[in-house]
Every structure is written in structure tokens, then in C-alpha cells.
Amino acid sequence: MEKPKEKPIIELKNVLKKYDDKTVLQNVNLVINKGEFVTLLGPSGSGKTTILRLIGGFEWTTRGEILFNGLDIKDLSPHMRDVSTIFQDYALFPHLSVENNIKYGLRLKRINLPRESIKPSIYKKQKNLQKKWAKEAKDAMKKLDKIQAEYEKELTKKKLPKNKLVKIQQWLDDSDFKYASWEVWPSLMNEKFEKKYLTRKITNDEMDKIVKDVIKLVNLEGHEKKSIDQLSGGQKQRVALARSIVIEPSLLLLDEPLSALDAKIREQMQQFLSDIQKKLGITFIFVTHDREEALRLSDKIAIMRDGVIEQYGTPKEIYDYPVNKWIANFIGDSNIFEGKIIDNDEEIISILDQKIKYWSKYKFGQNEVVDVLIRPEDIEIKKSKGLIKGIVETIVYQGSYYMIEVKHKQYKILVESASEFEIGQKVYLDWTITSMHLMTQEKEKNKNKDTVSLNLKLNKEEISNE
Ligand SMILES: Nc1ncnc2c1ncn2[C@@H]1O[C@H](COP(=O)(O)OP(=O)(O)OP(=O)(O)O)[C@@H](O)[C@H]1O
Ligand SMILES: [Mg+2]
């Protein structure tokens, strides 16, 4: 089936975020298309919430830009950002009823007037004003060009008084912002115009109807009059969801919305979120540290680590083709063995003391040492004949299968199996060529630099002591 052409709703371009001297996001690039369910997945402190806060407009980038429907987010009024957020603690009003919590979100909501009820003169007026705003912005930017050129010329002069220099420098530093605000000026003015002439406030009757519909959508019928304190965790979660979607945002940000729920309700809510997202076609940016939740729900996952997006792709891409060992381990149970490319033409690798054929869409260097991932579910365990021989060391029952650890020489290999084996049993393992995924070995992370240099120093001292 041909997919409709994908249109970005959010674009992060080279985003850097610092708190004081601490860099919490480094050069983040991310494109999220309309209607997608995108998950930010990563360990605590990796920068997930920071990205949400930047997109929601609660924080500013230190460098780089964030575009919302192609427009720089810092120049958009909150109304135009059209974003709604669900925080981890739900941020509901405990003293208000379910109904009133949901209504709260609707206070600012306006309804488009039917096109036929609007006099043609209004549209004409809008067109003329649009031209006027565009011209005003153009003229203003021309003026900026002129000032900028003059100041730049002045800067080349040798004798410039200090206070003048500071003034010019400040002006130039701010000039990006000045240009940007004129760039969005016509659309901001247009938005104001439309609000005034093409929309109206919603009536109380309409509000009641909208609230009733959304309460039905989130299965909270019968709980309308209850106060928040009288609800269970899952119900509170649904009120938070209702309050966010009732304004029909085009983007919903969800920061670990399910982390406070117990396993069973959590699974129900996952399904529920996924259904609602599809039904309403809202773009979701969802934060979690739960890999299974991410794999189950997302169209795309961004794997975050230390303020960097390490990989961005579909759950399948990330699970089957992680770009490094860290991601492979983070996203699922893994066997990762070091391998050495023996022949990069014939595609022969030495792994687990065997020389076997491999397949990869990437070309590796002759003699290059790589990490090889084989998922436990891709290994076949049997009683006779196989690529390698081993002894069953441990067996853990996982509900629908056994996770078995097999020892082969100095290696330990995890295998999933539906059939039972015994500890100490001699077994054979087999896997297909396509279930081996070769990854470039990671360079030493900066974080480890200190320990590395310390070791070097120690070695030197040892040497000089001798
Ligand atoms: N206002 C702030 N001032 C200083 N440092 C901050 C601030 N907010 C976040 N940080 C730091 O930025 C880094 C990223 O934080 P962030 O909250 O984005 O992580 P996270 O991935 O959401 O983690 P978690 O899974 O624990 O919620 C952390 O090291 C955090 O301490
Ligand atoms: Mg967080």
C-alpha cells in the first residue's frame, strides 16, 4: 500500500542544550512526521524530558533550532504551537471533578465559523492585510540588512570607542532573533486575524457535548462528577489523556505517562493509547525507559544516551539492526561476540573459534574486529548436530518459553527454546547466516577518558619504579 507523503511536524536541527556548563543535549537532529507515534527511549538522565520540554516550549535551546510545521518554535505563540503535554504526575487539579478537569483544557478553545457564514468582504480584507503584513516584514528586513551592513563596516574601522563596539556587537548577536521575528510576523498577524474574524468561542452546550464525547472515548462514563482523589491510577491517567486530547492538538507530548501504573493496567493503557492515537491521528511523542513498551507502541524509536540520539528508526530496524553493542543490549536480550573479518570479499568471519560465512549490507575492513549480535530467539538448540556444541548451564522459565544458557568453551550463549532441556545436558546450537548482525565496535567513550589516562599514568609509574 502506498503511504501518503510524509510531512514533518517537528524538526530538531543541531540542537544543543546546556544547563550552566553541563551539556545535556549534543547536536540532536530529529524529524517527526505528522501522525507518527515516536518514542524517546533511553536511560535516566539521557535527555528525554529535556527534548520534550524544548518541543513544548518550556525551555529554549542553547543552540540549534526546532521547527514546528516549518516555523521556528521560539517565534510561535503557545496557541499556535498546538501542542498538549501529559506529565508523569498528570498535573490534574485534585479539587476539581473529572468533568471540570477536562473542561479546563477547553477554556481557550475556539471554533471555526462555517465558511458560508463569513462575508466575502472579510476574506478580501484578509487578503489585503496579508499583502500589507508581508510588505511590512520585507521592508523591516531590508532595514535590518542596511543596519547590519553599516555595523559590519564600522567594525572594520581601527579606532572604535569601546561602548560603541559593545553596542554593535550586541546588536549583531541579536540580529538572528530580529530577522526571525519578522519572518513569522505575517503568519502571526494572520493568526490573530483569523481568531478574531473566522472563529468564535464555544458555547456551554457545545462544551458539554465535547466533554461528554471525550469522556466516552476514554471510558470514564459514570465518573464525571467524581473528584480526582477518588480515582485509581489508570483512571487518573485517562482523565489526563482526555484533558489533553479534548483541545484536538496536532501534537501530544507524553512524559512516561504509564510509569506509575502496575503491569496489568499499564498494558491496557498501552493498548488504549495506541488505539486513540490511531483513531485521532494525533502525532505522539512518547517518553519511556521501558524497551518493550517502546517496541510495542512506536512507529519510530529514538534511542538516547548521554544527550545524543544514537539511533532513530522503526522498532524492527532497531531490534534487528542496532548500530552498536550498547543499543543491542539495551533493546533486547542479546548474545554479542567479538568477531574478526577473515576475508571481506568472500565474507568469512571468525567467531566463537569458528570460521563461518557472514552477510552484511555494510563492508567491513580486512581483519577488522567487530561485534556480532545473535538474538537468543534466533538460535536453535537441539540434541544432535549443529554448528557448535555446548553444555546447558542454566534454565529460566519465562512464561511461554525457556531462556537457556549454554556454555561452549569460554563462551556463554543465551538461547530461547519452547522445549525443555536439562542442566548439564549436551546440546548443539545452530543459527542462520542472516541472524548474525555485524556492528562496528564503539570507540572509547569520552566518559572513560579519565580512567584510561589514569591507567596510562599508573603504567608509566610502574615502569619508572622498575
Ligand atoms: N533545570 C535543570 N538544571 C540543570 N540540569 C538539568 C535540568 N534539567 C535537567 N537537567 C539535567 O539534564 C540531564 C538530562 O535530564 P532529563 O530530565 O532530560 O533526563 P531524562 O532522560 O528525562 O531522565 P529520566 O528518565 O530520569 O526522566 C540530566 O543530567 C539532568 O540532571
Ligand atoms: Mg525524564
Written description of the protein model:
With 466 residues, this protein is an alpha+beta fold. Helices cover 38% and strands 28% of the residues. It has 4 domains: 8-82 and 249-313, P-loop containing nucleotide triphosphate hydrolases (Rossmann fold, 3-Layer(aba) Sandwich); 115-201; 334-374 and 436-466, no CATH class; 382-429, Beta Barrel (OB fold (Dihydrolipoamide Acetyltransferase, E2P)), CATH 2.40.50. The chain has 12 helices and 22 strands. α3 packs parallel to α7 and α4 packs antiparallel against α5. The radius of gyration is 29 Å and the shape is globular.
Main CATH class of the largest domain:
Alpha Beta
Name of the CATH superfamily of the largest domain: P-loop containing nucleotide triphosphate hydrolases
Total helices: the number is 12
The molecules bound to the chains, other than polymers, are:
adenosine-5'-triphosphate, magnesium ion
What structural class do you assign from the helix and strand content? alpha+beta
Indicate how many domains the architecture comprises. Answer: 4
- Label the overall shape: globular
CATH topology of the largest domain: Rossmann fold
How far apart are the termini? 72 Å
Question: Oligomer, anyone?
Answer: single chain
Q: How many β-strand runs?
A: 22
What Rg do the Cα atoms give?
29 Å
Q: CATH architecture of the largest domain, please?
A: 3-Layer(aba) Sandwich
Strand order of the largest sheet: 6-9-10-3-11-12
**Stretches with pLDDT under 50, minimum 5 residues:** 446-466
The major pleated sheet works out as: 6 strands, mixed
What is the helix fraction of residues, given as a range? 25-40%
Mean pLDDT: 88
Fraction of residues in β-strands: 25-35%
